[in-house]
């Protein structure tokens, strides 16, 4: 069952990591462009409402990438990308499972989405904002 949140949708789904609350949004940009935005650590503060800075040795993440993110401009938290396959990546932040990130082809454009662990459902509005920001950045890059 899905709940419509304007341009975003929210649903409870079974993912590769079990049941998750999923926020998604259609994007008028290619799936490759959306994926590039999601995996480019230089852009995380541009679309991640809770991320204000990133430190890592890799600009583009891959399975096993580590570093730290500054959350809400106050605290640095370590992260590790726990899985990264084409168009989907997950991570642990401060050694806790955090959001999954994905892009899907949906001609003529694509979809961006976030998978939220059940104990973090209050994070859904933040992920909805992130979907909107990713869409805006990707559309500018593709435009």
Outline the structure in words:
This protein has about 140 residues and is an alpha+beta fold. The protein has one domain: Alpha-D-Glucose-1,6-Bisphosphate, Chain A, domain 4 (2-Layer Sandwich), CATH 3.30.530. It has helices at about 30-40, 45, 125-140, and strands at about 1-5, 10-15, 20-25, 50-55, 65-70, 75-85, 90-95, 95-105, 110-115. Strands 1-2-3-9-8-7-6-5-4 form a 9-stranded antiparallel sheet. α1 (about 30-40) packs across α3 (about 125-140). It is globular.
Short description:
Helices cover 22% and strands 49% of the residues. It is of the alpha+beta class. The protein has a single domain (2-142), classed as 2-Layer Sandwich (Alpha-D-Glucose-1,6-Bisphosphate, Chain A, domain 4), CATH 3.30.530.
Which strand order spans the largest sheet, edge to edge or round the barrel? 1-2-3-9-8-7-6-5-4
Q: Please give the largest β-sheet.
A: 9 strands, antiparallel
Please name the CATH topology.
Alpha-D-Glucose-1,6-Bisphosphate, Chain A, domain 4
pLDDT under 50 segments (min length 5)?
none
Structural class: alpha+beta
> What's the helix count?
3
Strand content: over 45%
Strand elements, count = 9
Instruction: Give the CA-based shape.
Output: globular
Mean pLDDT: 93
Question: Which keywords apply here?
Answer:
143 residues, alpha+beta, Alpha-D-Glucose-1,6-Bisphosphate, Chain A, domain 4, 9 strands
Describe the protein's topology:
Blueprint: E1 2-5, E2 8-15, E3 18-27, H1 31-39, H2 44-47, E4 51-56, E5 66-71, E6 75-85, E7 88-93, E8 96-106, E9 109-116, H3 124-142
Antiparallel strand pairs: 1-2, 2-3, 3-9, 4-5, 5-6, 6-7, 7-8, 8-9
């Amino acid at each position: 069952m899905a709940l419509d949140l304007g341009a975003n949708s929210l649903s409870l789904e079974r993912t590769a990591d079990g049941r998750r609350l999923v926020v998604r949004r259609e994007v008028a940009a290619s799936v490759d462009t959306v994926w590039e935005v999601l995996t480019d650590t230089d852009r995380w503060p541009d679309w991640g409402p809770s991320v204000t800075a990133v430190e890592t040795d890799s600009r583009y993440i891959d399975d096993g990438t580590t570093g730290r993110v500054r959350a809400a401009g106050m605290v640095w938290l370590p992260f590790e990308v726990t899985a990264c396959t084409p168009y989907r990546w997950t991570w642990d932040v401060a050694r806790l499972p955090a959001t999954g990130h994905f892009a899907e082809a949906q001609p003529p454009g694509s979809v961006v989405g976030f998978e939220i662990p059940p104990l973090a459902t209050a994070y859904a509005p933040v992920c909805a904002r992130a979907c909107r920001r990713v869409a805006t950045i990707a559309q500018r890059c593709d435009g």
